[in-house]
Design brief:
Elements: E1 6-7, H1 8-18, E2 23-26, H2 33-43, E3 46-49, H3 53-67, E4 71-75, H4 79-82, H5 85-94, E5 98-104, H6 118-122, E6 128-131, H7 138-152, E7 155-161, H8 162-165, E8 168-169, H9 188-200, E9 204-208, H10 210-214, H11 218-228, E10 232-234, E11 248-251, H12 258-266, E12 269-273, E13 292-297, E14 311-314, H13 317-328, H14 342-349, H15 367-377, E15 383-386, H16 392-398, E16 407-409, H17 419-429, E17 435-440, H18 441-447, H19 451-456, E18 461-467, H20 472-481, H21 495-501, E19 505-509, H22 516-523, E20 529-534
Helix pairs in contact: 1-2, 1-7, 3-5, 3-17, 11-13
């Protein structure tokens, strides 16, 4: 190595910092140890030590969710990478920009114990793969991986073979500069057809998805809604985008409350911004039946993908809404609408979820009442993360946030046990907001080692366990099948005691009379707190 050269692993580290890395989540191994050492010792990167490799990727995903920036993770080769596949799939389906720096084995040792075809492993997850093929391309490959994560909004595995890492290169800044995603103006003819459909509607409803939230279209969509007299609703991924508005219907779909269901069913037109219109959003098609649909999305692959639409417009939500406001401004459309009435305003303002569920007394805590309590007593300026499972539905419906990026769901791949890693990443990304994580006992058992990570860094994280000693969804399935519950039942686990053993605080709630203790524990929390609440898997839930 000449005096003008540095090692490739040092070049990779320097290139990553030039691409904006400040925080790295990972598990160290021989395939990535040199790069981590360079990042930590030479560039003072904050390195968060995860307990497991999938946890590291989930942390990077949670970080990306709340910051809007690229999340970075690192693992070693072979089993280090195989352990990430479920987390990579979840992040890919969530559309999150993550770069996973993975070591790879020496190509000259084809029979090494940890050698696998890493590109082939990554492909089915939906993540991208960016190899570092030589010392000469290393810096550009780093820039290309980060640029792709931003532009493609998915994880990119940056693959660094150890033999390439040990090479030498004269460092120079990256010549690759992939542009970030850009706002796309709507096609004039397509938007004109959309405007015609909207102008002809008498009972329009606007539905906004995550694409609308990412484009910053809230203000423009509300202005359009006021102009045409339309109530507004969101998908789950854009949860609470319009919260506080008088005609906010909340979530559109299977989680809609009574007034929202009646209003959406009565609509003759849906104007959809940045939402996929999947079966959950359309309530298995019942919410779109007999309606004209204007579908606006930045990604043409999303247009009409799940639901047949009347007019499809490829465009940024903010650009499209602003143009529609201008074009429709001369028409007196609001007076034609019959949905935004004083009666609806009053019903929405006075709606109480308890009006839609009957009491269920099993001796344990009603998970619905627990959810409503958490919404009241947890600080409102919060990040809310939900693991997956039957317990999640009341939280989706009734646990609120101040804006969509403060809510993280982990259900895109249908896997349980992904919430704790995402919550840790969110706490690192937005330390100004306490994190509320809800999880079931089955899912938590899968990810419990990461509680050590939360304790290690003293995170302001409250984990509430809906502990029904079962895989709750599977109990419902065995009921439908007329089978015994033994295969779905789990041994009763004291997660509060486990939490205390791991260095966190722990509280057990066994009866409804114990519920007031939750507010006190949250108020006095210092570092991670686990609240283990004994619930019943047969408690009715919203659906």
């Amino acid at each position: 190595m000449s005096s003008s050269e540095i090692s490739v692993h040092a070049a990779i580290a320097k290139a990553l910092t030039e691409q904006g890395m400040t925080t790295l989540f990972g598990v160290v191994g021989e395939g990535n140890i040199h790069m981590i050492a360079d990042l930590v010792e030479d560039h003072r990167i904050r390195y968060v030590k995860a307990a497991r490799e999938d946890g590291a990727v989930l942390m990077a995903s949670g970080y990306a969710s709340v910051t809007g920036e690229v999340g970075f993770a690192t693992v070693t080769h072979g089993p280090g990478l195989t352990n990430t596949t479920t987390a990579l799939t979840q992040a890919a389906r969530s559309g999150l920009p993550v770069v996973l720096l993975a070591g790879d084995t020496d190509a000259a040792l084809p029979h090494g114990r940890q050698r696998i075809d890493q590109a082939a492993l990554v492909a089915p997850t939906g993540a991208g793969f960016q190899p570092i093929t030589s010392p000469a391309t290393a810096v550009d490959d780093v820039a290309r991986a980060v640029g792709r994560a931003r532009a493609e909004r998915r994880p990119i595995v940056l693959n660094a073979p150890v033999d390439v890492q040990q090479g030498a290169v004269a460092y120079s800044p990256a010549r690759v500069n992939l542009p970030p995603p850009q706002a796309v103006a709507p096609d004039v003819e397509a938007l004109d057809r959309a405007a015609g459909v909207i102008a002809a509607a008498r009972r329009p409803v606007i539905v906004a998805g995550r694409g609308a939230a990412l484009s910053g279209a809230r203000k423009s969509i509300l202005a359009l809604a006021n102009q045409i007299g339309a109530p507004v609703a969101t998908t789950l991924r854009a949860k609470d985008l319009f919260r506080g508005e008088p005609f906010d219907l909340g979530i559109c779909g299977t989680l809609s409350h009574g007034p929202a269901v009646e209003t959406i069913l009565a609509a003759d037109c849906l104007v959809v911004f940045g939402a996929g219109l999947n079966s959950d959003t359309t309530a298995d098609g019942s919410f779109v039946a007999g309606k004209r649909i204007v579908h606006i999305d930045l990604d043409p692959a999303h247009l009409g993908r799940h639901t047949e639409v009347t007019v499809a417009v490829q465009a940024d939500a903010e650009r499209a809404a602003g143009t529609l406001i201008e074009w429709l401004g001369e028409l007196n459309l609001r007076h034609a609408s019959t949905l935004c009435t004083e009666e609806l305003r009053t019903r929405l303002a006075e709606f109480d979820p308890r009006s839609e569920f009957a009491p269920y007394d099993s001796g344990s805590v009603d998970s619905r009442e627990l959810t409503l309590l958490l919404d009241r007593v947890f600080p409102q300026e919060r990040t809310y993360v939900s693991d997956s499972g039957r317990f999640m539905l009341p939280g989706y419906a009734w646990l609120h946030v101040t804006e969509p990026s403060a809510f993280i769901e982990t259900v895109d791949f249908g896997s349980i046990g992904l919430g704790l890693g995402a919550a840790i990443g969110a706490a690192m990304g937005r330390p100004d907001r306490p994190v509320l994580l809800t999880a079931g006992d089955g899912g938590l058992a899968m990810e419990l080692p990461e509680l050590l990570t939360a304790v290690r860094y003293g995170l302001d994280l409250v984990l509430v366990v809906y502990n029904d000693s079962a895989y709750g969804a599977e109990v419902s399935i065995t009921d439908l099948l007329g089978r015994a519950h033994d295969i779905s039942r789990l041994h009763a686990t004291n997660f509060a005691a486990i939490a205390r053993g791991m260095g966190a605080s722990g509280l057990t709630i066994t009866r409804p009379d114990d519920l007031p203790l939750i507010a006190e524990a949250i108020e006095k929390r210092r570092g991670p707190l686990v609240i283990d609440v004994r619930t019943d898997p047969r408690t009715p839930i919203p659906h």
